[in-house]
Amino acid sequence: MKQGKVQSKMSHYIRNAPFLFGNSIVISLILSLTLLFSSIESVAQIKLAWDPNTEPDVAGYRVYYGTASRNYGAPINVGNATTYTLNGLSPAVVYYIAVTAYNTANYESAYSNEVSGQITETVSRPTVLGGPTSGITGTSNTYTAGGSYSNLQHSVQFQFDWKGDATDLSPWGSATQSKTWTVAGTYNVRARARCATHTSVVSSWTGSLSVTISVAAVSCTVTPSDGLVSLGNQGGPFSPSSKSYTLQNTGSSSINWTASKGQPWTTLSSTSGTLAAGASTTVTVSINSIANSLAVGSYSDTVTFTNTTNGNGNTTRPVSLSVAAVSKPDLIVSTLTGPTMPVAPGQVITLFEATKNQGSRATTVNTVTRFYWSTNSTYDASDVRLGQRTVGPLTAGAISVAVTSVMIPATVVSGTYYIITKADADNAVVETSETNNTKYITVKIGVGNVSP
Q1: 415-422 and 438-445: which strand pairing?
Q2: Most CB atoms closer than 10 Å: which of 29, 181, 284, 416?
């Protein structure tokens, strides 16, 4: 800070014979007044010092100051000190200052030499400048400045020069700011500070931080990273039925892309296109209706995304499909017994039969178990109906047991025949299997030794 020292010589006051000047008593003395401006870490203040008067009856000193020459406010009695600090002053204002002495009789001298000065605010240059020294186009880079302050303890703001030639300046603001370069090259980043209260008070620039920006590689990204996992019962529907993927060009020039799959039960919403720099598109992978005809089991496919421009970002996503068996009832004739001896034409016989639901779901309606006379062990439309019984709804694993009487056809001749019993003979229930409903026993027609 600046400092000034001005001295004036005045005659010693006359101790026993003061003289009158107008209506005031003037005591003369010798004063040497020194003006010291505030130090940089202080608030707005002026420090004063003067040479002491050597007369033995000097009692003290008074400091006068104001904003016009020889036009002072009320004095400050500083006692017998020879230094004093004026505090609370305003920056950029010129202050005029003088000192008087007074003796033990309270006689006061004339003003000393007048000194003047003003408080000048300064903001120090930032001592900290940090951030990345390399990067790629299109990516944000963050830099921090610091270590700058106002000598009047005001808040400071920071500005960054992103090129080093004052042609690309950031707004004044916080000590941490970000920059995204779109053109590759070398940039000289620097920073400066200013007073937030008196914005014209600006520091000098820091030294430059050299930053090298490279062109971002042209690449295609695909999100999300997981595959489509779908499941359902045989015949559909399957859930989830689709999954969407976002393809994005992360480079600075356009790219061409393709998407492909391998299975007929998979559908892609789009299979090719062009993406401008920074652009994105969506491809949806779906399970189509062909999957409804698939047998029970596990199936897989792979969707391949290809950057046909340069291959950067090529990737795949798996597709998994699980087809579960449908839960259904399944009716069978689990037990069938009849006469073990030959029988006669027209004879009534007794059959013991059990109908069982061996499926995983209950039947909810009545079904019919029917008995047929056949010349072979395989049921067909030519077989003769002998009788039937009604079977009520059966829970999974339940069995319905009954004894049923039927008559042997009167026209049959001697030989070996078959009684075929068919569960759900009218196909009232959709079953897991429709080919396991029958069971048979052999019956002999004889002339002698006939079963009663």
Answers
A1: antiparallel
A2: 29
